[in-house]
Design goal:
Blueprint lengths: L3 E2 L4 E5 L2 H15 L3 E2 L2 E5 L2 H6 L3 H13 L1 E4 L7 H7 L8 H9 L2 E6 L16 E5 L9 E5 L3 E7 L8 E8 L3 E5 L4 H18 L2 E6 L7 H24 L3 E5 H9 L5 E5 L1 H14 L6 E6 L5 E5 L5 H8 L9 H18 L2 H19 L2 E2 L1 H4 L9 E2 L2 H17 L3
Parallel strand pairs: 1-3, 2-4, 2-5, 5-16, 7-14, 12-13, 12-14, 17-18
Antiparallel strand pairs: 6-7, 6-15, 8-11, 9-10, 15-16
This protein binds NADP nicotinamide-adenine-dinucleotide phosphate and magnesium ion.
The site of NADP nicotinamide-adenine-dinucleotide phosphate has 17 residues, from helix 10.
């Protein structure tokens, strides 16, 4: 069989625990037999991050900036237990956080839908992608427990020595609480651009919602910056692609989403995105069916699974017990990255392979062959059976061979 040539190197970031085991299988069984692919490989295994003083993570981020597309396996974010478990020099930062800070990106999460697992919201026919602003607001706040009566004030002191801006928040008559939030125009603009870019790439409508009726300066500023960005840089492209940008109050958006058919990119402020992405994920069934892509306003992309390293399954695997861990989101990280690589390189055969890989994976689940997490939520069918981690990937490989040789 002739292998499909991937023109530009793909930045590959290997990871930890059960996802590292599956990553190797996916490469050996689903990619290498079909693709002539040059990878720029970075091993983000926790021990290698420790050995290199986390330089390997920074190098991986730089490589994504060089080549444009990276695909990442799940990695351990060390806590105290991990420092002891692996004898680490220090509690290294989350690789995702490091890479996100380098690429200045927005994270988009999208569920993988299969016909035999119905979303709990029956009208959702197409996936709902959440675009979450990952900067500022309540995640970078300052809070004070007010001990008793007194005045809380908001003060901004200009660097140039101009007159301070000052406002009373509350004249407290007794104890209470007070909080300060911020955001920056640079970050909001990046967020807006990443959302407009992805909506255009995927040809889906974009919704954005804030509480602008109540927060007439803060949330309204997000609304206005999105509107300006849209009118200046995206309106014509959206109209040409036949897609829509739509702003509405968050309450209204929530009500509409619950009655929509899906197929929407929903952009949300940091807190709203945190909460709503968990709602969409749980309505769609399993963490292992959620993909994640970091889109930078500079046109760099990093694909990964939304779940972690599946530590519990890994410990079972180490004990020699059989596991039934779901590789769907890892496979879709590869297909998403390959499709994007093919688009950027102008190699439609690579993008077509990505489509076949997804079709094979979805086809296997729809034929009733599934891992334990899916069996628990799939519609009852006598064909359904639970298979182990490797058998699931083997079944996808068989189907992929049929798709690539049969009508390929
Ligand atoms: P997790 O790896 O997402 O797993 C949590 C649970 O979700 C699993 O125990 C399993 O439930 C289920 N699950 C997740 N993915 C699955 C899959 N592919 N197939 C089947 N079941 C799946 O979260 P965690 O155990 O809390 O975290 C483990 C490590 O991952 C941590 O060190 C954390 O730092 C890291 N992490 C990394 C990333 C990332 O790199 N993007 C993201 C999150 C967490 P059952 O046990 O009930 O089967
Ligand atoms: Mg959350």
């Amino acid at each position: 069989m002739r292998k499909i040539k991937v023109k530009t190197p793909i930045v590959e970031m290997d990871g930890d625990e059960m996802t590292r085991i599956m990553w190797k299988m996916v490469k050996e069984k689903l990619l290498c037999p079909f693709l002539d692919i040059d990878v720029d490989y970075y091993d983000l295994h926790i021990e290698n991050r420790d050995r290199t003083d986390d330089q390997v993570t920074v190098d991986a981020g730089r490589a994504i900036m060089k080549y444009g597309v990276g695909i990442k396996c799940a990695t351990i974010t060390p806590n105290q237990d991990r420092v002891v478990e692996y004898g680490l020099k220090q509690m290294w930062k989350s690789p995702n956080g490091t890479i996100r800070a380098m690429l200045d990106g927005t994270v988009f999460r999208k569920p993988i839908l299969v016909s035999n697992i119905k979303p709990f919201v029956a009208c959702w026919e197409k996936p709902i992608t959440i675009g979450r602003h990952a900067y500022g607001d309540v995640y970078d706040n300052r809070e004070i427990r007010v001990p008793g009566a007194g005045r809380a004030e908001l003060v901004f002191t200009p660097e140039d020595g101009g007159a301070p801006l000052k406002m009373t928040i509350k004249d407290f008559k007794g104890p209470g609480i007070v909080q300060g939030l911020h955001n920056t125009d640079d970050s909001i603009r990046s967020f807006a651009r990443a959302c407009f870019r992805l909506a255009l790439d995927e040809k889906t409508d974009l919704w954005f919602s804030t509480k602008d009726t109540i927060s007439k300066t803060y949330d309204a500023h997000f609304r206005d910056m999105f509107a300006r960005e849209y009118n200046e840089s995206w309106k014509e492209k959206f109209e040409a692609a036949g897609i829509e940008y739509f702003f509405t109050l968050i309450d209204d958006a929530v009500a509409r989403i619950m009655r929509s058919r899906g197929g929407i990119l929903w952009a949300l402020k940091n807190y709203d995105g945190d909460v709503m992405s968990d709602m969409v994920a749980s309505a769609c069934g399993s963490l292992a069916m959620m993909t994640s892509v970091l889109v930078s306003p500079r046109g760099w992309y990093e694909y990964e699974a939304a779940h972690g390293t599946v530590q519990k399954h890994y410990y079972r695997h180490l004990k020699g017990e059989e596991t039934s861990t779901n590789s769907m989101a890892l496979i879709f990280a590869w297909s998403g990255g390959l499709r994007k690589r093919g688009e950027i390189d102008g190699t439609p055969e690579v993008a077509a392979f990505a489509g076949k890989l997804e079709k094979a994976a979805i086809g296997v689940v729809e034929s009733g062959i599934m891992t334990g997490d899916l069996l628990a939520i799939a519609e009852a069918d006598p064909r359904n059976r639970k298979v182990n981690t490797e058998a699931f990937i083997d079944a996808i490989a068989d189907r992929l061979k049929e798709l690539t040789t049969g009508n390929g």
